[in-house]
C-alpha cells in the first residue's frame, strides 16, 4: 500500500500565529447554545405523556409529581449519559488524532471500542458479576491492547491514513467476530447486549453515570495537562524533541488517557460509534476558520462540546424518526455510526491521489514460479480439499464411519445415518462453494485495487449483501432462496455502486476506494443492527448466526445460487486473467497495452460483488477468506492470475470447510459459526502482512 497524505481537512496542532478572541468566544457560545437547545428537546422526548408544557410548568414551580418521576427515572439519566459520552469520546478522539497526526484516528478506527466491548461481553458471557470500576478496568485493558496493536502495526499513523484504518478494521473485524460468537454461544447470559453493542445511552437511573463521572473528569484533566506537549507534537517529532518534549512518553501517556476515556464510555453505554471521529474532525474544521482555536487548550474543550452536540443530536433525531418504545430499543450509536461513516467517506474523498502507480509497482507480480510448482500445489490442494470434504461428512455432533458414507451414497444406509448425512451434505457443499466464491472475489478485488490488503468485506460489499439477505429473512419469514439471493445481490450492488461512484474522481484511487469501502461497511453494518432491532428484536440470535457466518440449517436449494454464479464468473476471470495481471501493476500499463481500464475494472468489481452476494446467501457474512486465500495463493505460485485463480479458489474452499468442520465438532453438540474460524485464521495472517510491510508500500 502506498502512503498517502490527506488533503488536510483540519488545522495543525501547532500553536496559532494569531488568536481571534471574538471568534473563539462565538464558537463556544454557538456550540453551547446548540447543546442546550438539544438538551431541552431531549428532555421533552420520551414514551411517557410528559411534554414541553409539563417541563415548562415544572420550571416555574407548578409541575406535577408525575413529571418529576419521569425525569428522574429515565430522561435525566439518559441526558446525563449523553453528556458524559459526548465529552469522553470527543476528547479521546481529539487526543488520538493529535498523537497519530491523522484525521482518521479515533476510538473506532483504532479498535479501542471493539477491544473494550469484547471484554464487557466476555464478563457477561461467563456469568461474572463484577463491580463497575472493575468492569471499566477490564474494558480499559481490552481497549488499550487493541489500540496499542493497531498503532504498532501502522507505526503510530506514520504509514498514512489508509494503513491506520486498515489495521484498525482488521483488528476490529476479528474482535467483532469473537464478540458475535460469545453472543451466540451464551445467548441467555448476554441477552440485550446485541443492541447495547451499537451504543445505547438508555439508563435506568443515575448510578452508572455517577460512578463514571469522576473517571471522565480525571481523564479530561489529564488530557488538558498534555495540551502544550500536544501542540508541540504537531510540529513534528524532531521539532518537539528539540523543544524539550519527550515524544515517546507523551504519546504513551496521551494514548493511555484517550483509551481510559473511551473505555469508560463503553462501560456506560457500549461502543457509541464514530463520535470520537466526528466530534474532533468537526471541531478542527471550525478551528480552521477561527484563529487560535487549534491550540489544544481550547481545541479539547471545544471537541468535548461538539461531542455532546453529536450524541444528543443523534439521540434526538432517533426519537423523532422512531417515536414510542422503538426508540428505546434502537441504540443511539446506530445514528452516530451512520453519521461518522459518512464523515469518513467525506475525508477519504479528500485524499490526494498517490500517483499513477499507487499500490502497484515494484514486485507487483511477485517471484515467478515454475509450472511444475504450480501443478504440485494444485495437486496437493486438491487432495486436501477432498480430505476436508470427507472429514466434514464424518465429523460433527455424531461421528459417521466411511462405510456408513458408502452405504448412504449407494442408498443402503439406515434411517439415522441417512438423516445425519442428508443434513450434513448441504452444509459441506455450502462451505466449499462459498469459500471458493469469496476467494475468487478477493482475488479480483486485490488485483483491481492493486492492494493485497483489500477484500470484499473491507469494501462494504459483504455488509451490503448481508443487509439485503437479513432484511429479506426478517421481513418475509420462510422466504425462498432465490428471493433472498436477489435481495443479497441488490444490497451488494447498491453498496458497490455507491463505493465505486464516490471513489471515482478523475480516476480510481486504490487508497480512496478502500477507505470509502470501510466507511460504507461501518454504515451498512449499523443499518443491519437497526433492521434487526426494529423488525425482530425477539429473533436476534437468528440474525447473529447469519451475520457470524454459518452453514447451520442449509439445504441443497440454498447452494444452487453460489454454484450458478461460480459457473458464470470463473470462466470470465480466467478469460480476463491477463487483464488482471496488468491491472495489478499500475494505471499506465493497462492503457499502453490497450486495456479499457475503467470498463474492465467496473466489470470485474461487479463480478466480485455478485460472487460475494452468492456466498452470503450460502454461508452468511464471513470475513477474511477473500484476504487470506488470494494472498496465500500468490505466495505459493506467484502472482500470474492464470495460476492464482484456481489456487485461491482451492484455498478458500479448504479454509471455510475446515473452519466449518471444526466449529461443528470441537464443542459438539454446540456449534461455533464458521465465520469465527476464518476470522481467527485470517486476522493473524492479516496482522502479519501489515507487520511485514511496515514503513513501505505494500
Give a structural overview:
This protein is mainly α. The protein has 2 domains: 81-349, ABC transporter involved in vitamin B12 uptake, BtuC (Orthogonal Bundle); 381-692, ABC transporter involved in vitamin B12 uptake, BtuC (Orthogonal Bundle). The chain contains 29 helices and no strands. It has helices spanning 21-44, 52-59, 65-100, 112-125, 132-153, 161-185, 193-196, 207-225, 227-233, 237-242, 247-269, 275-289, 296-321, 326-329, 332-349, 371-394, 402-410, 415-449, 461-475, 481-503, 510-535, 540-547, 556-575, 577-583, 588-592, 597-619, 625-637, 641-665, 674-692. Helix 4 (112-125) runs parallel beside helix 6 (161-185) and helix 18 (415-449) runs antiparallel to helix 26. The model is unreliable at 1-17 and 354-366 (pLDDT under 50).
Features:
single chain; 698 residues; mainly alpha; ABC transporter involved in vitamin B12 uptake, BtuC; 2 domains; 29 helices
pLDDT under 50 segments (min length 5)?
A: 1-17, 354-366
**How much of the residues is beta strand, in percent?**
under 5%
Helix/strand/pairing category: mainly alpha
CATH class membership of the largest domain: Mainly Alpha
What is the count of structural domains? 2
How many β-strands, per DSSP?
0
Per CATH, the architecture of the largest domain is Orthogonal Bundle
Name the overall outline: globular
Q: Estimate percent helicity.
A: over 70%
Radius of gyration (CA) equals 26 Å
Termini Cα gap: 4 Å
